[in-house]
């Protein structure tokens, strides 16, 4: 459709559907080449993402193989050296992808190999370590932390359901371990703020508001994770979790304190940088995309205003008595 053809169309006589059809016809005609290029790029993106995922798995498997090779060279009776190697392994592999199975295997091993009096403390220490190591692998944001805590607790619940005589001990130890691991992760983040490389600071500035909000509600996040898992569990386990959740409210003061302290450090060090980033964002509003977004926003306001005006006129006409 040419410009001349467009000039012959009486848009004022068309309804919404007809105008939309003309616009879509023009869009299809004039953007076909761009659409085809984009479709091809999306296919390439999908293939690239699959390849990345495959290589990530291969990298993880390679790490396992290397640690297995080192372990085969160590005397099985040398518990101290094996412990150091396993600690190094926890800090080197990507725990997030295998977290559920790792927690399950660790708790079951603790129950089988520890004395009854030691098992609870052992589970708490295991969960603390896994929580800390997994959280510190990536960004400190609500979605990721919630997923980690939920995964750990869910795995613990499955074992507790199979061990009714000690289910409360297992769950209490898990919750305490999760709390301490989360606290240590936040404390580590606070200490690292001063030494973050420039690249990391830019990421921090971009997510400044989100991280600040997350830090000010870590206790709520923790309690919500427990509440959600309680709601989704067997009634007996759910009851235990809800009772433990009530008790945990009084045990989260240290977590609240370190979270707010970290938020304060972040505010002191990065609020100025964040404001600079906002100024840069303001200058970006002059871009063509931003200008068009603003135009669309104003147009959306106009649509709403017109619709509201029409509705008011319609209502008035129904209310006014006919002569």
Describe the structure in brief.
This protein has 323 residues and is mainly alpha-helical. It has helices at 3-7, 16-30, 32-72, 79-92, 99-113, 116-136, 142-162, 167-192, 198-206, 208-215, 218-232, 235-248, 253-284, 288-319.
Can you describe this structure?
The chain has 323 residues and is an all-alpha fold. The chain has 14 helices and no strands. The longest helix has 41 residues, at 32-72. It starts with a helix and ends with a helix.
Distance between the termini: 51 Å
User: What is the number of helical segments per DSSP (H or I, 4+ residues)?
Assistant: 14
Strand pairing plus helix content: what structural class? mainly alpha
Number of DSSP strands? 0
Unreliable residue runs: none
Alpha-carbon Rg, integer: 29 Å
Query: What is the string of SSEs from the N terminus onward?
Result: HHHHHHHHHHHHHH
Give the percentage of residues in beta strands. Answer: under 5%
What are the SSEs and their pairings?
Elements: H1 3-7, H2 16-30, H3 32-72, H4 79-92, H5 99-113, H6 116-136, H7 142-162, H8 167-192, H9 198-206, H10 208-215, H11 218-232, H12 235-248, H13 253-284, H14 288-319
Helix pairs in contact: 3-4, 5-6, 5-7, 6-7, 6-8, 7-8, 7-11, 8-12, 8-13, 9-13, 10-13, 11-12
List keywords for this structure.
single chain; 323 residues; mainly alpha
């Amino acid at each position: 459709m040419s410009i001349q053809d467009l000039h012959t169309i009486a848009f004022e006589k068309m309804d919404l559907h007809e105008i939309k059809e003309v616009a879509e016809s023009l869009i299809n005609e004039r953007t076909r080449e761009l659409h085809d290029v984009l479709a091809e790029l999306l296919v390439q993106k999908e293939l690239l993402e699959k390849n990345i995922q495959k290589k990530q798995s291969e990298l993880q498997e390679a790490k396992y193989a290397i640690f297995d090779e080192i372990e085969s060279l160590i005397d099985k009776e040398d518990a101290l050296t094996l412990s150091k190697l396993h600690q190094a392994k926890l800090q080197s592999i990507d725990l997030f992808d295998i977290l559920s199975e790792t927690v399950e295997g660790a708790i079951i091993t603790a129950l089988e190999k520890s004395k009854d009096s030691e098992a609870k403390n052992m589970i708490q220490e295991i969960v603390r370590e896994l929580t800390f190591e997994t959280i510190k692998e990536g960004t400190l944001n609500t979605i990721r932390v919630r997923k980690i805590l939920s995964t750990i607790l869910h795995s613990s619940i499955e074992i507790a359901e199979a061990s009714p005589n000690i289910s409360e001990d297992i769950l209490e130890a898990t919750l305490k371990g999760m709390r301490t691991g989360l606290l240590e992760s936040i404390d580590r983040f606070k200490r690292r703020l001063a030494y973050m490389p420039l690249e990391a600071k830019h990421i921090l500035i971009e997510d400044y508001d989100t991280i600040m909000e997350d830090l000010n509600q870590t206790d709520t996040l923790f309690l919500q994770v427990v509440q959600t898992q309680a709601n989704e569990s067997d009634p007996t386990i759910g009851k235990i979790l809800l009772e433990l959740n009530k008790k945990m409210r009084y045990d989260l003061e240290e977590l609240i304190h370190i979270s707010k302290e970290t938020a304060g450090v972040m505010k002191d060090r990065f609020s100025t940088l964040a404001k600079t980033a906002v100024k840069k964002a303001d200058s970006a509003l002059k871009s063509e995309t931003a200008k068009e977004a603003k135009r669309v926003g104003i147009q959306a306001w106009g649509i709403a205003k017109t619709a509201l005006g029409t509705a008011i006129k319609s209502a008035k006409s129904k209310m006014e008595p006919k002569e």
